[in-house]
Amino acid sequence: MAPLPADLDAVIERAWQLTQGTAGFLGENEARFLGMLAACVPARGTIVEIGSFKGKSTVMLASVAAYYGLGPVVAIDPHTSPSATDPGISAGSSTYEEFLASVKAAGLMEHVETHRAYSRDMAKGWSRPIRLLWIDGDHTFRGAREDFDLFTPHLEKDGVVALHDALNAFEGPIRVFVEEILRSDKFGAAGVVQSTAWGQLRPEDGKDFRALRMRIERRARRMLPFVANGKRVQGFTKMGYKLARSRVPRAAISAEEWSALISRSCAE
Questions:
Q1: CA 120/CA 142 separation, integer angstroms
Q2: Within the chain, which residues score under 50 in pLDDT?
Q3: Do residues 146 and 178 make contact, with C-beta atoms less than 8 angstroms apart?
Q4: Which pLDDT does position 9 carry in this prediction?
Q5: pLDDT score recorded for residue 266
Q6: For residue 135, which of 49, 74, 255 has the smallest C-alpha distance?
Q7: Residue 216: which H helix or E strand, with range?
Q8: Quick one: pLDDT at residue 267?
Q9: Is the dihedral of CA 176, 72, 113, 90 positive or negative?
C-alpha cells in the first residue's frame, strides 16, 4: 500500500472550505472523496473534468492539485443551457462567467485549464495521459457513454474514472457504471460514495477484484429498469427506485480504507 500524504486531512479540509461556498450539486462526502482521489490516485497524468457547471468540483480538484503540484485541472464544459441536469437555468444563458468567478474567488485561476467546448470536440485532438477522469456532463446514456468511450482510452493504468449522479435517477451514469466498469475485468476496485461511482483501471489484474465488483453490480443493476430509455422516476415507480438505491453501499470512505481497498486482491 502506497504511503498517503501526512497532511492529507488538512489539505482536504482547506479545499472543502473553499468548495462549500461554490454553487453546485456536489455533496460534502463526494466532494471530499473527489479531493482524496486527486491526491491519492497512484497513476501519472492529468486530472480531467467533463462538466464544470459553476465550478464546485473544479475548486475541490484544483485546490488539492495545486497544493501537491499535480498540474492544472483540465475543465471541459460548453457552459450552455438548459439541460436535463440544470433545468433551472433559462434557455440561452450560460454558467461560464459564474464558473470563472468561482475559480477566481478561490485563487485557483492558474491551476485550472479551462476549455469552453463540448467534450467530443476536445477528444478529437486529445493525447495526454489521464490519471483521474471526472465525468459530470451529459447524463443521458448516450452522453455519459460517449464521454467514457472517448476519454478512458487515455486513462493510465491504476488511474480512476468517477461518474457523478450515479444514484440520482439519470440513466447515463449508473448504466455506464454497471455495464462498463462493474462488469469489466479491465477495472479493479470500484464503489460509490454518496452519488459518485468510481472504478480503478486495472487491465492486468482486474479479474482479481471481480468478486468485489459483482457484489456491487448485483445491487446497482436493480436501478437500471427504473431509468431505462431516460424515463422519469415518479409516482409509485419512485418508491421502487428509492428502495433499489438504498441497497447500494454508498458510505464515505477514508483515504486509508480506500488505499487498502485498491491494494488488495479480491479473488476470494
A1: 12
A2: 266-268
A3: no
A4: 97
A5: 46
A6: 49
A7: helix 210-220
A8: 42
A9: positive
The gap from C-alpha 53 to its chain's centroid, in whole angstroms, comes to 14
Residue at grid coordinates 468511450: 149
Could you give all domains of the chain from N- to C-terminal order, each with its CATH number?
8-263 (3.40.50.150)
Q: Residues near 238 by Cβ (< 8 Å), separated by ≥ 6?
A: none
Contacts of 256 (CB under 8 A, 6+ apart): 4
Cα 148 to Cα 50, 90, 100, 145, 187: the distances in Å are 10, 28, 26, 5, 13
Please, how many CA atoms are within 13 Å of residue 160, restricted to the half-sphere of its CB?
Answer: 26
Q: Which three cell numbers stand for residue 121?
A: 470536440
User: Could you read off the pLDDT of 126-148 as tens digits, one per residue?
Assistant: 999 999 999 999 999 999 999 99
pLDDT in tens, 64-118: 999 999 999 999 999 986 555 555 555 556 889 999 999 999 999 999 999 999 9
DSSP state of 45: S
